[in-house]
Design brief:
Elements (H helix, E strand, L loop, with lengths): L2 H35 L5 H22 L4 H25 L3 E8 L3 H10 L5 E7 L2 E11 L3 H11 L4 E7 L13 H7 L5
Antiparallel strand pairs: 1-3, 1-4, 2-3
Helix pairs in contact: 1-2, 1-3, 4-5
Length: 192
Amino acid sequence: MSFVDSNLYIWLVLPLLVFLARVIDVTLGTMRIIYISRGKKYLAPLLGFIEVFIWIAMVSQIVHSANNIIAYFAYAAGFAAGNFVGMFIEDRLAIGTQIIRIIIANGAEGLTKNLHVAGYGLTQVDGQGANGPVKLIYTVVKRKNIPTVMGIIHQTHPHAFLSIEDVRSTQEGIFPAQITHREGAFLGRKSK
């Protein structure tokens, strides 16, 4: 390898490879942690294996060219970008189930009716808030359906107090049937 080729590799190719490998490795790490928290016990170890393999291969390249500060910056930038990419992918996949807790002082009947019509199961409980009686409505939904449910809530009761959190696992329950593209066109709905 000539001196020019060697410099090109050390100052351009190696940092670029380190950056890309780190983006992939950290993206996989982010996804692995998400899968662990969602109870996906078979996929998480596979992602961990690939993640560590990429990491050790890149670290060995950096140690081999230890005097290359650009590779160090590429390593750090790849870490930051990998976190962003991992969160973006996880958001797009919308894996898992979430519980929505809705607290409203009045108008619960309209909201529960609209959620039932859309096919979502719910539980309604009477409660006492700071300013008097309230209704607590609980519904467990797939993450990919959160925007639809939030639309129903905001359309029916725009000032409802609500909280959303992840659910590790569920058993039984009422979830809307998956709508195919053809059925969605027939019902006037957009299919997902």
